[in-house]
Design a protein that fits this description.
This protein has 21 helices and 14 strands. It is an alpha/beta fold. The chain folds into 2 domains: 142 residues, 3-Layer(aba) Sandwich (Rossmann fold); 241 residues, Alpha-Beta Barrel (TIM Barrel). Helix 14 links the parallel strand 13 and strand 14. Helix 9 runs parallel beside helix 10 and helix 17 runs parallel beside helix 20.
Length: 522
């Protein structure tokens, strides 16, 4: 059996990081981890060919080669998924479609002509699919009966990738989240009871990536890596030892809840294992709105100090916010911007609220008659809502655009970036020891941390391009050089991280222009 695994193109979004990909000479940010896992679950005597449409096009030879076409996709990839199904049907190919999009809304894939639509996680549904094939079935809807134990999850088929196409690799150590925020689809997709891989499974996946030659960033794509701190510690202990024994070949990024800021010991464990970025769902600085949306984990301690603790102790962050919640008062965009500036958060993902299918928010709005026929896209930058809000939609979208304008403006972005890294503790190498206090320690006399000179040619190209654009061509070039000198003098071991964040700004500045142009053209 020859299996063609296809990942649709990802529409432009915050996560595209198009400029970073260009500057680093890569084609896209992340590989399709779900398809790699599916390939590992299928009979290994079968032949596999992966086509990620974010890195290359499908050729007639690819279609002709395939006996079976397997397609995945998130809601934001909806149009790509449906187009691929139609193409496969026109060519007479047996098509299997899975992933978050069809797990939430299978009807459209069935209507487009998919032979098999599989809802749920591969470890559960792939055995059912194989049974259907053995029984001679030509198609059908396959649904998981229960959530799988992740201890049975195989090492993904990373060997199917062209590694140089990607900025980062992905692994996953758990699925599900113990929290139940009304607007989030994680619980509806993966359940509220987290399930975990064993530490040796995680190390085995890293060993495969290491043997394949990967030496860059790995995204630990758990929905909430610290959802079970016992599990997180069980992973971090052997991971740290493995990293040190292999010369620290990877840097790590993951997702966590804001209550990480209440646990400096956990932050230290993460940074010791070479985690350097964390994605955090802040959502809103308004306690009443957090409570209405059952985001209770953000209410246990003041949000601002929690975020400052995370940054001060060595973790860079991407903070996510949402505009459009029910009962949100006028000026929500300004309140988010003021909060971000006050706590000097550089990278901010700002979203227009949409109600994802099957979430508690979606079901409530449906009962209230407030869901619109508008298709949920998963794309904040479409500048539309798929429900009737409690205040004027035009006001919400206008505040969103104004906040994007303010947050992604280069002078403001660079100013926040400077303050953030100036307040971050020096690296362990510069300190000579691990931090022990809950706040950043007083800075000792430091030697310059020469480790930051390590980098690939593409890293240096990205840096030099950023310097040219921001330090030579940009009207804010004086600010750029003043801040660069300030970091060098006052917190030199964080110079590499600071410069990397400056490069990241190259993604946000054009995104700001595109959103403003779209808004003005509406």
């Amino acid at each position: 059996m020859r299996v063609l695994l296809v990942n649709p193109e990802m529409p432009p979004s915050f996560w595209s990081f198009r400029e970073s990909c260009k500057l680093l000479g890569r084609k896209t940010l992340l590989p399709p981890l779900g398809l790699l896992t599916v390939a590992a679950l299928l009979p290994q005597e079968w032949e596999f060919r992966l086509v990620d449409l974010n890195t290359r096009n499908l050729s007639p030879a690819d279609w002709q080669w395939a006996d079976l076409v397997m397609i995945t996709g998130m809601i934001i990839q909806r149009e790509g998924v449906l187009n691929l199904i139609r193409q496969a049907k026109a060519l007479g190919k047996t098509t299997v479609v899975g992933g978050p999009y069809v797990t939430s809304t299978p009807q459209e894939a069935q209507a487009a002509g998919a032979n098999f639509v599989v809802r749920g996680e591969g470890e559960t549904v792939i055995p059912q699919f194989l049974s259907a094939l053995r029984e001679g079935k030509a198609g059908g809807l396959i649904q998981e009966g229960s959530k799988p134990d992740m201890s049975i999850s195989p090492v993904p088929r990373f060997d199917l990738l062209t590694l140089d196409d990607y900025v980062t690799m992905s692994i996953q150590t758990s699925r599900g989240c113990p929290f139940d925020c009304e607007f989030c689809d994680i619980v509806s997709l993966y359940g509220r009871k987290p399930r975990y891989k064993e530490p040796d499974q995680v190390i085995a996946e890293l060993e495969v990536l290491y043997r394949l030659g990967w030496r860059r960033v790995v995204f630990v794509s758990d929905d909430n890596f610290i959802g079970n701190k016992k599990h997180a510690r069980a992973i971090l202990a052997p991971l740290t030892a493995w990293m040190k024994s292999h010369g620290e070949p990877f840097g790590f990024i993951t997702q966590a809840s804001v209550n990480l800021g209440h646990d400096v010991e956990m932050i230290d464990l993460l940074t010791d294992a070479n985690f350097n970025h964390i994605f955090l769902g802040v959502e809103t600085p308004e306690p009443e709105i957090l409570s209405r949306n059952q985001k209770y984990q953000n209410l246990k301690e003041p949000l601002g100090p929690s975020l400052e603790t995370i940054g001060a102790n060595g973790l860079s962050m991407v903070a996510s916010f949402i505009i459009g919640f029910d009962h949100e008062a006028t000026g929500a965009g300004d309140r988010i911007c003021d909060f971000v500036e006050k706590h000097h958060i550089p990278l901010v993902m700002l979203n227009l609220l949409q109600a994802p299918p099957q979430t508690r928010l979606w079901k409530r709005l449906q009962q209230e008659g407030r869901l619109l026929d508008l298709q949920t896209t998963g794309d904040s930058y479409g500048l539309d809502l798929n429900f009737i809000p409690t205040r004027a939609a035009a006001e919400i979208v206008g505040e969103y655009v104004d906040a994007i304008d303010r947050l992604y403006e280069p002078v403001a972005y660079l100013g926040r970036t400077y303050r953030f890294y100036l307040n971050m503790r020096p690296t362990r190498r510069a300190l000579g020891q691990a931090p022990k206090s809950k706040t950043a320690p007083a800075r000792p006399a430091q030697r310059f941390d020469s480790a930051w000179f390590k980098g690939t040619c593409s890293d240096w190209k990205a840096l030099l391009t950023s310097i040219w654009r921001q330090g030579i061509l940009a009207p804010h070039r004086r600010q750029y050089w003043r801040q660069l000198l300030g970091i060098y003098r006052q917190n030199p071991s964080r110079l590499k991280s600071y410069l990397a964040a400056c490069v990241m700004g190259e993604n946000l500045f054009p995104l700001r222009r595109e959103i403003l142009q779209k808004w003005r053209g509406m």
